[in-house]
Amino acid sequence: MPHGRLAAAVASLALAALCASRGRRRGRSEARLPLCGGGGPGPRNAFRGDDVRDAPGTSRQPHHWSSRRRLVAAAVAAIALAAVRQVRRGCRWPGRTRSGRGALVAAGASGGATGLKPASPGTVVAAADEDRGAAAAVSPVIYAAIFFSLLGFTMTGPVLPAMRLHFGLSAAQTGLITSAFPLGMFAGVFIFPALSDIVGRKPMLVVSYLGVGLGLGLQAASVRYGLSFGTFLALRTATGAFAGASTVVKAYLADASPPEKLPQVMAYREAAATLSFIVGPVLGGLALAASSLDSILTIECLTSLTAGVLVLLFLREVRPARPSSWQAQSPSSNGQQAPQAPKPSCSATGDPGQRAPLSFGKLWVAIVLTMFVSWSYNVGQSFFDGFFPLLCAERHGLPAPIIGTTQTMMAITVFVATAAFYSRAVARLGLVQTAALGLTLIGAGVAVIGLAGTWSGALFGVLLYAVGIPLFSPSVAAILSRSAPAGRRGLVLGMDSAVNAVGRVAAPALAGRLYEVNPTHAFCLMGSVILLGAAAAHAGRRSLHNTSPQT
Fold first, then answer.
1. Over 70: is that where the pLDDT of 199 sits?
2. Please, what is the average pLDDT of the chain?
3. How many CB atoms are closer than 10 A to CB 226?
């Protein structure tokens, strides 16, 4: 896909957000009846973000809200421009250093440099073609698909209070909205990655994105035509059954990347996802203030369909890795094996001298430990996604646009931390310790948010949470992808996602009951679960070191 098209798409989103923030104030100047029906002061509409207290038939938006929207739109535009610059370099990301095949080409051409016999011309040409394919495999299209697929999902946060009002739900019932999607994902994240090992990554990505888009469209129709809450939950659960793309994407990136570049590629994936968390919440808050709940679900439908079309038309397929994928055979008639290149370094920094991989049986010890660590994070994240907007609205009295602004600023912090600190943290601490540090910050942040009685204290917890995410998420993805046996990567990642789905289903439903009794206790409990995972990662660091890309 030409870089100009992708850059134009990202820039268009930034421009749309900017225009929405500027046009919002203009649109509010039109006449509208006050909510209480008289000429006197009217009540405040917490979800639409306006204050109906002016002359009869008019409403005026507070000036500081317009300023905040312009500030957020400017931040979105700046982040989008930075992302465009990174995307334009995207074709060089996985190929900046020589992979094993590239080393084979160099060794075959020079011969004496490695002490090996020069490879035959056919082997060198085949390896060169294979190396060029690997370098071009991680296309910017996959990062664009990640962005669009998550854009609709991230728009849901600011509108959860509106959904609760629309259906007349309690706090525990509101948690069911957050749990329904992961309940369907339990099947999707296991079946889709396992099938991708057989039929390929691209077909399963297309089916997943298009299926989720269709399901979101049906959810929008259920809200528009006033169907029951049970029908909405059933449609949301069915939509989640198609949501296996996030796991297939990890397998795709692991197949397309040399092992030494895997942590960096996973960090780029995290940056693409974070960009959607920057645009999504503010776009969701603005869309809710300007339109209706079903319109937001329709927008979510269109973003997922866009991701599916991008993958279908522009993404190149990459075959799943096999145990012999880093070796080349000589096509000579005598059938002798060509000289093998040295195995690529497994270090995130490219340094040699790594430990040899463990045997298959011992690998599963590290895999199970990594799954538990990942599960603890997903339990806490699911609770945070479902109940942080409610805490903002109920304890701190924030309307939807301000909640969306807060989530956008949090995502900007994640994006900046990914770009500025992640590589340095991995180089200094190692991949496993970086993941443990990030999970510790996340758990502490969730607990602080629950304990804080003021908005400034809650913002400190949000800062801890936002700094911890970019340290943990790409690290644990790289550890698990590197630990997975060749040819079974989709299956292992699918098992991990299925285990995480169990936590994402149970956490909001169970913690929702505790939240109704005492929100502080609910947040502290989830923070403790996350910190338990961080302690497990630190305690098992020796096993994880031996299977991770970092010593």
1. yes
2. 72
3. 8
For 427-442, the pLDDT digits (tens) are 898 888 999 999 999 9
Q: Phi first, then psi: what are they for 45, rounded to 5°?
A: -95, 100
Q: Where are the beta strands (DSSP E) in 206-333?
A: none
Nearest-CA neighbor of 331 among 132, 98, 487, 129? 129
Domain hosting 238: range is 138-319
Q: What is the Cα Rg of the chain in Å?
A: 25
* Gap between the Cα atoms of 254 and 461, Å rounded: 33
> Do 363 and 306 share a structural domain?
no
| Side chain identity at residue 122, one-letter code | G
The residues, ordered by sequence, that sit 6+ positions from 88 with a Cβ below 8 Å of its Cβ are 3, 7
Residue 50, SS3 per DSSP: strand
Any domain includes 101: no
At 81 the pLDDT is 52
**CB-CB contact of 523 with 507 (8 Å):** no
Answer yes or no: do 380 and 315 share one domain.
Answer: no
- DSSP string across 141-191: HHHHHHHHHHHHHHTSGGGHHHHHHHHT--HHHHHHHHHHHHHHHHHHHHH
CATH number at residue 294: 1.20.1250.20
How many structural domains comprise the chain?
Answer: 2
In a domain, 303, yes or no: yes
Residue 112 burial by Cβ neighbours in a 10 Å radius (0-12, 13-18, 19+): exposed
pLDDT reading at 94 higher than 50: no
> How many angstroms separate the CA atoms of 124 and 439, rounded?
45
Percent of all residues in the chain with a pLDDT value above 90, rounded to a whole number: 26
Q: Dihedral of CA 100/106/111/114: which sign? A: negative
Name the helix (H) or strand (E) containing 45. strand 44-45
Backbone torsion region of residue 191, taken as left when φ is above 0, otherwise alpha when ψ lies between -120 and 50, otherwise beta:
alpha
Separation between Cα atoms, residue 196 and residue 149, nearest integer Å: 18
d(CA 476, CA 462): 21
Residue 180 has pLDDT above 70, yes or no: yes
